[in-house]
Amino acid sequence: VLLLAIGLAAATFARQRLTSAVVKVSVALDRAAVGDFSERAPETEVAPELSELSGHVNRTLDRLEELLAWLRDSADQLAHDFRTPLARASARLETLGETATTPEAKRLVAEARADLQELTRAMNEAMALRDGEAWSFEPIRLDTLAAQAAELYEPLAEERGVSIRVVAEPVEVLGVRSLLQRAAANLVDNAVKYSPDGGVVTLTVSMAEGRPRLSVADQGPGFRAEASNGGAAAVAASTAEGRESHGMGLAFVRAILKRHGAVMTIDDARPGAVVTAHFSR
Q1: How many CA atoms lie within 13 A of 114 on its CB side?
Q2: How far is CA 193 from CA 97, 187, 221, 243, 250, in A?
Q3: Which residue, of 52, 185, 247, 275, has the fewest CB within 10 Å?
Q4: What is the pTM (predicted TM-score) of this model?
């Protein structure tokens, strides 16, 4: 009986030790999956069966961290190379605009400056994905995020006669606050921009099949088929009428969500569109 008790105790201890080691390896991989490489799998004081595996996991994480650091450094260099000519071009266009004498020349200068501003904005948003703060995850309330985005765009919506509604339940996700704020703001900005006068923009935060979800619905022109099918170049149906495309904003949102292990879907609201962020945790 004593030997049996000792055997059971030893087996229980070994199982607990193995389970604890597996959990720690899983935590390190889960955090790496969302871009946080601060955790490593334990290589000492773990079950012998896992020590070699932990070593392989840690070496892989070390290599991934090195590659990401190289990508961030490369992005810094590219940003530096682009900012100077963009600033010069903007200054020259401003000077040209002051000397333009015909309405056509002034219009072309204004359009060129708008294009440069859009290019600069796109570059800044791309850089936001590699900033140091983009690697710091924390618990974030999606319902609070939605309410803040709605409040931010309320003045613009009122000017257009557009109403913003928030239908939310308390939902928490693990993410980078600044990036998720940008993503929510981009979605609301697009929805308000393309809503008809008197339209309604609805932000909904809920749990769907046990997973957090944030959706923004508008009553605008909707999207072309390639956007609904998940293409990176999402295009507003109103582009043909001379209005600006949704494209870059949604591409940025998609990149942020991918950074958080989430996916974006676009559905036809008839009228308008519903853009939904589906989080995995």
Answers
A1: 7
A2: 27, 10, 11, 10, 13
A3: 52
A4: 0.60
